[in-house]
Write a structure and sequence with these properties.
Largest sheet of chain A: 2 strands, antiparallel
Structural class of chain A: alpha+beta
Oligomer: homodimer
CATH architecture of the domain at 2-75 in chain A: Orthogonal Bundle
Helix content of chain A: 40-55%
CATH topology of the domain at 2-75 in chain A: Arc Repressor Mutant, subunit A
Strand order of the largest sheet of chain A: 1-2
CATH class of the domain at 2-75 in chain A: Mainly Alpha
Largest interface: A-B, 73 and 72 residues
Number of strands of chain A: 5
Chain lengths: ~140, ~140
DNA sequence: CTGAGTGCGTCCAAAATCCCGACTTACTGC
DNA sequence: GCAGTAAGTCGGGATTTTGGACGCACTCAG
């Protein structure tokens, strides 16, 4: 977890990932949509490429222009994004309801659900945090 | 999503939340375990309390000592933590495998799964980002 | 050809944040 | 009395972020 956050926990990082999921692969497009300082976004894209989450592909030379694509590791961030959105929709949405929605091919929105790894049972969160085993660290 | 990150996306915030899930509710304990600067952690705890994720309860006066508990909104962050851990375990774990494991009451670890909100079908991620509807912003 | 516009950055100075170690206060246990 | 613990605060330096301007290599309209 700590490791995840090191890679993906910096400001703007996850928003950039979301943008690529939404199909906005170009620098300017992202700047416009998420409102990050160009400088910071450039740095963030670099670290995300280094971390193997984005792949930077040239789509034109003279002038060299690049697009960012998700690697497999990047695509695996999808549940993180959905989960975060879910939480925000639940606890932070103001008058204007949930915006940007990702849809399943069947036409309905996606969500994540907590399940037990082995029995698959959709573990509803107990009122008290679930039982856990404590171990060195994470 | 952007809103979620504003609340929970600051450095150390999610690690603090995780600690409370693990049952470490005291300031010093958290400092020791996550290694954040005392200063920063103090600030973070304050913002998390303001955001309604933690509740600060006094457990002794003379000297006044406090513990942090999760509110309902805080408990709802559980899937976010699990999802993040899952991703880290998958893509970032080095020789030392996944540490700190949360377990379901049946004794097995928990995980999150992407499902369709209506059909419940465990939507596996399509090779290409899923279809989506684009809307103003998030 | 000229001038405007676009795309992807970089540069810089100011502001905000973060980090670290030391310090404080009020206990408890030896 | 002395060490230790707990929950911070304080001062200051180090690091990041921010926003605006700038550069460059095009393309397009006139």
């Amino acid at each position: 977890m700590a490791r995840s956050l090191e890679v993906v926990g910096e400001k703007w990082a996850l928003l950039a990932v979301r943008e690529v999921f939404l199909g906005n692969r170009r620098f300017d497009e992202m700047v416009r949509r998420i409102g990050a300082p160009r400088d910071t976004l450039a740095a963030r894209l670099r670290t995300l490429v280094e971390a193997g989450i984005f792949e930077r592909r040239q789509y034109s030379d003279h002038p060299a222009r690049f697009e960012y694509f998700l690697t497999d590791a990047g695509k695996d961030l999808y549940p993180v994004i959905v989960t975060l959105r879910q939480w925000g929709d639940r606890h932070l949405s103001e008058q204007d309801g949930p915006p940007a929605v990702f849809k399943h091919t069947c036409g309905h929105p996606l969500m994540t659900r907590l399940v037990c790894e082995s029995c698959g049972e959709p573990a509803s969160l107990p009122s008290r945090p679930p039982t856990f085993t404590r171990q060195p660290a994470s």
